[in-house]
Design a protein that fits this description.
extended, Ku70, Chain: A, Domain 2, 5 helices, alpha+beta, 7-stranded mixed β-barrel
């Protein structure tokens, strides 16, 4: 289990629930180190001060805010700690909203909220209420010296917390949303829906894998064994579709053949 990222209370009304927050997900990837090409030794980066022209130790490093070109105001960690709001130890629910009203684009980092034993009953009450009403809750909490607005929602028999992006942090992209087609034919829409329905399956997260990371592992294993690098698969050359009807019909035909072949294999195996 990863170490808790925060410990404090969820409060709603006069009810307080002691909890701990644990990271809900972590990126998994093949990690590389920088090494010296000539001898294979791992490289170490040093902290260098160009003014004193020497390497400095970690305890000589302070935090500074640039107020003018190359002029900084030094800020001590103890000074920052004194400025922490009450949300550093308690997150008070400000309001409830319908979970369906919150667009996932605002979700940032996810945490599991785990109650302390003394708060298990109150935690269960809040979870039950929010689950039955399909509500989410907004609160504020200070994590890593930064106060964040968070959304709390029921997930898999517990409460999950997400830090959220603020409206000004959602990027504006030119031309996004300006290409909704207005001249689509009913037959094109019907064929597209038919093709989509043929691909509908239950959500099974275990079927999705990072294939690039798998290829990286095979590359590293091959080089470690003194074998040549695996030959990568060639990506198909794609081009914009001009004739939608023709492309949809071919897609449906290919999809039906694939489904038929997979059914045949299953029947043969069962027999």
């Amino acid at each position: 289990m990863p170490p808790s990222a925060w410990r404090g209370y969820i409060s709603f009304g006069l009810i307080t629930v002691p909890i701990r927050l644990y990271p809900a997900a972590r990126e998994s990837r093949v990690a590389f180190h920088e090494i010296h090409k000539e001898c294979g030794t791992r490289i170490h980066h040093q902290l260098y001060c160009p003014y004193d022209e020497r390497v400095v130790s970690r305890d000589e490093v302070a935090m500074g805010y640039e107020v003018a070109k190359d002029k900084y105001v030094l800020v001590d960690k103890a000074e920052l700690k004194k400025l922490q709001p009450k949300s550093s130890s308690s997150m008070e629910i400000m309001e409830f909203v319908k979970l369906s009203d919150v667009d996932p684009i605002y979700f940032e980092t996810s945490y599991f909220a785990v109650p302390e034993e003394a708060g298990a009953r109150a935690y269960g009450l809040l979870l039950k209420t929010m689950s039955q009403m399909q509500y989410a809750a907004f609160a504020k909490v200070t994590i890593h010296l930064r106060e964040r607005t968070v959304i709390i929602r029921p997930y898999d028999k517990g409460l999950t917390l997400h830090t959220i992006y603020y409206l000004n942090e959602i990027c504006k992209v030119k031309d996004y949303g300006k290409f909704a087609a207005k001249d689509l034919k009913k037959q094109e829409i019907a064929l597209a829906e038919q093709f989509a329905k043929a691909l509908v399956k239950p959500f099974r997260p275990e079927q999705f894998k990072d294939e690039y990371q798998e290829r990286l592992k095979r590359l590293v294993e091959s080089k470690a064994d003194g074998k040549p690098a695996p030959v990568p698969e060639k990506s198909p050359r794609l081009a914009p579709v001009i004739d939608l009807m023709s492309a949809l019909k071919k897609s449906l035909a290919a999809g039906n053949k694939s489904v038929g072949a997979s059914k045949g294999k299953r029947l043969k195996k069962t027999a």
